[in-house]
Amino acid sequence: GAEDKMTSGDVLSNRKMFYLLKTAFPNVQINTEERVDAADQEVIVWDRKVPEDILKEIGTPKEVPAESVTVWIDPLDATQEYTEDLRKYVTTMVCVAVNGKPVLGVIHKPFSEYTAWAMVDGGSNVRARASYNEKTPRIVVSRSHSGMVKQVALQTFGNQTTIIPAGGAGYKVLALLDVPDKSQEKADLYIHVTYIKKWDICAGNAILKALGGHMTTLNGEEISYTGSDGIEGGLLASIRMNHQALVRKLPDLEKTGHK
């Protein structure tokens, strides 16, 4: 249906990603956006070789109990935009959370073959930009819910604020970073005011956290990646800014968030 589109792209991507991880790590909890049918099952074997450029960044491996790990997969983020052939917004994402905390995030842009990854206390291949504008920020928001965000953002930061409507949570997080992909727009803040699923945001949360940034609810609460599939409290993502000061500046967004 229109509210929750699914394409053959979602299904095929999900099949590959889910079974690769399930075969490699059978005891780990994997939460994915798409349903996995037994009829779809395929064995995809990983040789467990980690590319040299990643090994160099990670340093000492950490071992954790399998039951403390939850993996969140979004096999095709920005499905709406994918159906409209707006390919720059489309990403595939994987996130590893340990005891509910996001630790490792990967955001891949299949149509420009760009991959960003970061691990908390373990390195990354992406970095923050040199500077951000806190006074009159460029704010990236959902294409489909930009109206109410725009109103409150302009109220909070003034009329000089630029609102960038965009598809896909992965794309929006990359907008805050120093990304070489030329199709990627740049923003200073990412704000979302309605319900959002955890597989949409976990990878971006892990990457921001690894780089010293923040992703919280609009009330400034950390997001736990266990239990339910989604969060009600909206979303604020920033890097190299005073995140709690931003939270205090946005008291009205929370009230708007549940409309």
TrEMBL record:
It is found in: Golgi apparatus, trans-Golgi network membrane. Pathway: Sulfur metabolism. GO terms for molecular function: 3'(2'),5'-bisphosphate nucleotidase activity; 3'-nucleotidase activity; metal ion binding. It holds the Pfam family Inositol_P. Its EC number is 3.1.3.7. The lineage of its organism: Eukaryota, Metazoa, Chordata, Craniata, Vertebrata. CDD domains: IPPase. PANTHER family: 3'(2'),5'-BISPHOSPHATE NUCLEOTIDASE 1 (PTHR43028), GOLGI-RESIDENT ADENOSINE 3',5'-BISPHOSPHATE 3'-PHOSPHATASE (PTHR43028:SF6). This is Golgi-resident adenosine 3',5'-bisphosphate 3'-phosphatase. Its main location: Golgi. It catalyses: adenosine 3',5'-bisphosphate + H2O = AMP + phosphate. Its cofactor is Mg(2+). It is an enzyme of class 3 (hydrolase). The keyword Iron-sulfur does not apply. Keywords: Acetylation, Glycoprotein, Golgi apparatus, Hydrolase, Magnesium, Membrane, Metal-binding, Signal-anchor, Transmembrane, Transmembrane helix. It is a single-pass type II membrane protein. InterPro entries: CysQ/Inositol_MonoPase, Inositol_monophosphatase-like, Inositol_monophosphatase_CS. GO terms for cellular component: Golgi apparatus.
